[in-house]
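Weekly modeling sync, notes
Attendees: S.R. (lead), two postdocs, one rotation student

Agenda item 3: backlog of single-chain predictions. S.R. asked that every request posted to the team notebook include the full sequence so nobody has to chase files. The rotation student volunteered to paste the first one in as an example of the format we agreed on. Action items at the bottom.

Example entry:
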Amino acid sequence: MTATMTDAPPPAAPKAAGAKTPRSSSRSLGQILVLVAGGLLLLAAVRMITGSQDLDSAGQVSAALGLAVPIGLAGLAGLWSERAGVVNIGLEGMMILGTFGAGWAGWQSSPWLGLLCGIGFGALGGLVHAVATITFGVDHIVSGVALNLLALGATQYLAKLSFTGDAASNAGGNPKQSPPVDALPDITIPGLSDGLQSIEKHHWFLVSDLAGVIGGLVTHLSVVTILAAVLFAGSWWLLWRTPFGLRLRSCGENPIAAESLGVNVYSYKYAAVAVSGGLAGLGGAFLALVTSHTYLEGQTGGRGYIGLAAMIFGNWRPGGLAMGAGLFGYSDALQLRNGGTTVHALLLLLVVLLVALAAWKVYRKAAWHGAISLVVAAVVLVWYLFTDEVPSDFVGATPYVVTLLVLSLSAQRLRMPKADGMRYRKGQGK
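Predicted structure, as returned to the notebook:
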């Protein structure tokens, strides 16, 4: 009996309770392309049924892109910070600092210097947040809210000092607004843009829709938009394909283990939060230099918080974050450009998506969730059939309703960095 037990192979180590086999959460390029093609096909069908030609026109896509860029940059700023373990509720304040820095320096010198100054002011706000949370161990939420209030008060005071003098007043400045700033250059591909516009005007099924989407991406494209696209791709490569990114993400997952392996956790956290502030400042500079060509008090409009929501929707990854920012930008542009009639056409698209979601929930054995989705789809369908347009009171809330809906539907698959928001003290890993 003893010999038999000795010669037997050792039993496999039991899995932890509830443990699952690791599975990659990222989608392949083919899957992403299929999703994009399916979405465009659905949008084209809704356009043909409703007759709403502005759903995917070049103007709509261009406006959506302009509204999505500052939100995407704010979300990317949050991604850098939270991947290193620092919750950044202060994105709104850093964007406010970026708008003031861009307007102040851009008016006095050039928009390029204004762009750099906006990034610098945002990075300064990030360093303030880093000192409070990393060095002094202040609660991350408290520090972020305090930074938002501090940035708002500081910029209001500085605007009164900077934009009320004789030179500023004569140029159009006042305590709530800077004088106009020269425009940054934009890019249009003449032959391609004109050809796509011609195809779009024929309103062919899918072909005109594709022409409208591509036309919006190659017409009056700001250099800051191109820079934002480069920053998204560069952030993905740096954070997921380099040793630096691995060390930085380890600080957000398990800083004690990272320290035990020789990683200077403080340095990586400081670097991440400073970069986060710079990216948020760039988003604010976009609002001041590209959207309005001037600094305006309150022009961020809560985009820092919306960027944070887009980051959560994207599961703390650049690709999903870009999709979330694009979704909000699209819905915001839809209600700003076209009002209740076009938003009414969007209701039919929502019905189709809710029915598809219900089918998916039933397939995944979640019949209760599927039933709820079907009930909501039926209510929206009745609303669509018995009305001609969405009331103006609801039109302005379209982007926020879309954001809340998407976040509620995607909440079950989210996984934040394990040490995100936790206090860390040097020497814990020794």
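Discussion: group reviewed the output briefly. DSSP finds 19 helices and two strands in the chain.
Action items: rotation student to repeat for the remaining queue; S.R. to check formatting next week.
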